[in-house]
Amino acid sequence: xxxxxxxxxxxxxxxxxxxxxxxxxxxxxxxxxxxxxxxxxxxxxxxxxxxxxxxxxxxxxxxxxxxxxxxxxxxxxxxxxxxxxxxxxxxxxxxxxxxxxxxxxxxxxxxxxxxxxxxxxxxxxxxxxxxxxxxxxxxxxxxxxxxxxxxxxxxxxxxxxxxxxxxxxxxxxxxxxxxxxxxxxxxxxxxxxxxxxxxxxxxxxxxxxxxxxxxxxxxxxxxxxxxxxxxxxxxxxxxxxxxxxxxxxxxxxxxxxxxxxxxxxxxxxxxxxxxxxxxxxxxxxxxxxxxxxxxxxxxxxxxxxxxxxxxxxxxxxxxxxxxxxxxxxxxxxxxxxxxxxxxxxxxxxxxxxxxxxxxxxxxxxxxxxxxxxxxxxxxxxxxxxx
Amino acid sequence: xxxxxxxxxxxxxxxxxxxxxxxxxxxxxxxxxxxxxxxxxxxxxxxxxxxxxxxxxxxxxxxxxxxx
Lengths: 386, 68
Hints:
Chain A has 13 helices and 12 strands. Chain A is of the alpha/beta class. Chain A has a single domain, classed as Alpha-Beta Barrel (TIM Barrel), CATH 3.20.20. In chain A, 46% of the residues are buried. Chain B has one domain (5-59).
């Protein structure tokens, strides 16, 4: 029997839970991933949802996936301090098998309500990321991991992403979530081959894999080129299932494979049925490709040493650059306007290498930042009203 | 993984009503579409989705207030 748990990203969303309910009833779901920081504005969580989390928690089949910490914000914020306090409390109630966050920093005025955007891979950002991961570990005292980002400014960044992730998690002996739809976005958007990119990731550090669907967006910046975006609003493409087949044998420490989809894409009976079929397809792939796994744990992904942390590492110059970039992306009229504003900002001729950014991806960054400008709840309302 | 029948029932009823936010004191969002019997059973009158199909069912656990 495979030790890899077929799991679903399960949040308090009526459409998502309604789509998942038949899978729960048929005892098909082996683990759940909960974005524990998305309910901070929900005063009364239904008892049955807490009971659902508790049921998986008691079997070591619950993992926590943070969204709003903003790991690389240059300036330490009160929101991050509160996020850690809330995480510590959540870990007193639930036995998370591990805790993860996203790579990048959040756009938005306070960096906690936008979308994750990439940043330069420098010794400065490395130090900030390592500092934040240590703080997350100290709050949760469980294995800590980071997810690869769907968005990249350039092919060079795509090639260096895996190595930078490995350096980031080294002090906490952490792990990575390999999001295969994010990888699929890279392969399409930068016309690169799976075989060339996957070898640049530390695959022995993969403890969790994500699969999901996304969307195509026409690019005005690049003729005859559509951009693939990780919008989580559609069924899983066959290409992503193929990536799953290829990756499972390459990841000896894999424990959870999680299917993600937003409830906004699960309104119709047809979409719910497709969701269930995708899950069962994922499970069959895991069963076929994950049977040779040893039941012995190869890596606990727990730190070798404890951390005594002083004041959070900060970089006010990075903070200023992030503020300026967020402002440009959120308010540019189009990608050309964004290009002009970047070229006359303090970001020019810096480690951000804005001169090298792919124009199609800059256009995408503008779209992402403006989509999430007013936060998750406002975006959800606009999608539901459309 | 196997979940309890009680939990699955609670999820079924609550999600049929489209309710994912608990009302802690009086089950106000459930009242219009369900009645709670003296035996603490919740009888769902309508699923509330399209109003045409009768999806009445009886469960032994209130998904919103936890009685049962």
